[in-house]
Write a structure and sequence with these properties.
The longest helix is centred in the N-terminal third of the chain and has 18 residues, at 7-24. The termini are far apart. By secondary structure, the protein is an alpha+beta fold. Helices cover 15% and strands 43% of the residues. The protein has 1 helix and 6 strands, in the order αββββββ. It has a domain at 26-93: Thrombin, subunit H.
Length: 117
């Protein structure tokens, strides 16, 4: 017994799956001044909706709500079932402060308090 699903039904199922992913995802990718919803994120790639998102390439920023997660260099990989997959050539975790160029002991004081004579 073989099961045949028409192209129209397959397209409707893909659209429903993508709508569900868009509704539950807080992740987004920023490319220049444009923002697009991320449907799924892995450690080496992510997917966006292929139909509404233009071709992305180069340096992008990935956010979870308002929190900046990564700055990534991406390339297009695969278009399957309405999702465009992009792979990371480089992915750097975003930090909220500049990196230190010296070692700070874990028990070091935050500030020095004193008085002037």
């Amino acid at each position: 017994m073989s099961t045949y699903v028409s192209k129209e039904i397959t397209a409707e199922l893909d659209a429903a799956r993508i709508a569900g992913l868009k509704k539950t995802s807080r992740l987004r990718v920023e490319f220049g001044d444009n923002t697009f919803k991320i449907l799924r994120l892995w450690k080496d790639s992510f997917t966006v909706e292929a139909e509404t998102t233009p071709q992305l390439r180069g340096l992008v920023d990935i956010f979870d709500g308002a929190k900046h997660l990564y700055q990534c260099l991406i390339i297009a990989d695969d278009d399957e079932a309405g999702e465009m997959r992009y792979e990371f050539k480089r992915s750097t975790a975003a930090a909220d402060k500049a990196p230190l160029d010296f070692y700070r002991a874990p028990d070091a004081p935050i500030a020095l308090l004193g008085h002037e004579d």
